[in-house]
Amino acid sequence: MSTDDTGFTGFKNELGTFTVRPLDPLRDAELLHRWVTHPKAAFWMMQDAKLQDVEREYMRIAADEHHHAHLGLHDGRPAFLMETYDPAHRELVGLYEPEPGDVGMHFLVAPTDTPLHGFTRSVITAVMAHLFADPATRRVVVEPDVSNKAVHALNEAVGFVPVREVEKPEKRALLSFCTRERFTAATGVDA
Question: Which pathway is this protein engaged in (predicted)?
Fold first, then answer.
């Protein structure tokens, strides 16, 4: 396995090996379009997006120094999308007081006709392990829709603590934080 710029070499468990690579907005757009417009991706808020909309959105992210997108791989095959952002500059500006080392995160698991028990939990664990592989990351910040109960349970399983609801332009969100120590305590994964 190769190491990326954070030092992350991948996360391995009984379901396989999870790695990430930078997203290529043009090469990966068709794949992402299938994922973000799937009915299970309703909270991604791109249900009606055209292929060109997806290309444009991920080109915008690629050009943004405060927002990054990665394609997640399961045993070398595309399986999830991970976005990171600097909450002092994107998504949560003015909604909370960011601290040094805060990193915002979104993730989306690819739709499948053959679900694997524990897969989504493995994905979020891999995402968090990737984020904490960077020694500069002190706390991960998320803001899922308050009605997305499934992701709240996943977040809790990897150590997130809900802080409060915040009103964003596109949704009412549950602001939650996870420190390196809470992640390790919740998952047993050294970060």
Answer: Siderophore biosynthesis; mycobactin biosynthesis
pLDDT at 38 over 50: yes
Vertex 104: Cα angle to 20 and 81 (nearest 5): 30
In sign, the C-alpha dihedral spanning 84, 87, 91, 95 is: positive
Q: Is the pLDDT of residue 136 over 80?
A: yes
SS (H, E, C) 20-67: EEECCCCCCHHHHHHHHCCHHHHHHCCCCCCHHHHHHHHHHHHCCCCE
Question: Which residues face 141 on adjacent strands?
Answer: 104, 177
Collapsing DSSP to helix, strand or coil, 153 comes out as helix
Mapped onto helix, strand or coil, the DSSP state of residue 89 is coil
Mapped onto helix, strand or coil, the DSSP state of residue 157 is helix
Lowest mean pLDDT among 46-60, 115-129, 152-166: 46-60
- As a whole number of Å, the end-to-end CA separation of the chain is 18
Neighbours of 177 (CB within 10 A): 18
- Give per-residue pLDDT as tens, 144-156: 999 999 999 999 9
* Cα 3 from Cα 96, distance rounded (Å): 33
